[in-house]
Amino acid sequence: MTTETLPLESAKIVSDCPRLRVLVVGKSGAGKSSLISFAFGVKMESISDRARGVSDINKAIESPQNPRFVLHDSMGFEPGETVNLNSIDNFLKVHSGEAVSLEEQVHIIWLCIAVPASGSRVFETGDEQLLTLASELRGK
């Protein structure tokens, strides 16, 4: 690919896949909904700095600022809880693989990490499990 052919390649990619599907994941309270609201201009009704937000990973969120993105907000990971991690696992399996159209695949996983308190772990168990899952799916 050269600088002369780059516009042609870009146009082909956009024609094959006009929108990128972004899955936003991370621990509860890491700022996933705030990030979506700020970065993509989407009003998120579940933003709270006091209570755990509620979101539906299967509900596509479209950005009025940039129609080339389809966003999915996941519920946050909680220590010792597996339901939300399982829903992310299922969502990724449905939206990955050769049998899934390019437009329906997850193209980007945006992992939000809360800044840890002194002496705390940077990655929680849920973060580590998600990275392992993403690595396994990438290999398929």
From TrEMBL:
Domain of life: Eukaryota
GO function terms (MF aspect): GTP binding
Pfam families hit by this protein: MMR_HSR1
Chain ranges of the G domain: 21-114
InterPro entries according to UniProt: GTP-bd (IPR006073), P-loop_NTPase (IPR027417)
Protein name: G domain-containing protein
